[in-house]
Amino acid sequence: MCNLYRMTKNAAEVAAWFDAVEATQGANFAEEVYPGYPGLVVAEGQVRAMTWGFPLVLTGKQGQKLKPKPVNNARADKLETFFWRPSFAQRRCLIPLTGWAEAQGAKGRMTRTWLSLPETPIFAAAGVWRQSDEWGACFAMVMTDSAGTAAADVHERMPVLLAPDDYASWTGGPPGDALALCRPWNGSIAIDRTDEPWAKGASWQPGLL
């Protein structure tokens, strides 16, 4: 599952790439996006900054509400369950990225392996979004099985990647048509195994639901 991704282009470049309206002037987001932090999405024809992860409100032993946990990944086979259904039916979005990372290696010594699409400056992962009381607008990335792809050598799951011809079907088509797009990527995937420590900069325990 994806708990870190890169978006190295600015909002204006993203808007031009996706033929969308830039609605993020002055928005604050980093090139490396972690759960619980802002990232760019294309929703309703606009490029916007939203928090990565739907808030999951937890309760302590005394019944007190704890700090929400960002559930940043949505399994494709769970999109029609209670937690995701309203957003999947009504609020699907594109998540622009230039690469995503997975952790590899022994516990305590894990490093980052970056995956991307060769010769593709920006590509899109499937996402869903909603408004939340805790963080305002927030989004989650849809994940699918990586079997049959180069990504399977790194992790058993990968983001649902969308070809440009499928953007409109994902964002505005019937849920059944959108669900049919939740499949492993059938094109080339570039893999860059690095010696970068996995944990640097991360401060949240991410979630997949």
Textual characterization of the structure:
It is built from 4 helices and 16 strands. It is mainly beta and 209 residues long. Strands 2, 4, 5, 6, 7, 8, 11, 12, 13, 14 and 16 form an 11-stranded mixed β-sheet that branches. Strands 3-1-9-10-15 form a 5-stranded antiparallel β-sheet, with no helix packed on it. The longest helix has 7 residues, at 11-17. It is globular and about 45 Å long. Mean pLDDT is 91; it is low at 202-206.
Keywords:
209 residues; mainly beta; hypothetical protein yedk fold; 11-stranded mixed β-sheet; 5-stranded antiparallel β-sheet; globular
Please give the CATH architecture. Alpha-Beta Complex
Helical content class: 10-25%
CATH topology: hypothetical protein yedk fold
Question: Order of helices and strands, N to C?
Answer: EHEEEEEEHEEEEEEEHHEE
CATH level-4 homologous superfamily: SOS response associated peptidase-like
- Tally of DSSP β-strands: 16
Number of helices: 4
What does the overall shape look like? globular
Name of the level-1 CATH class: Alpha Beta
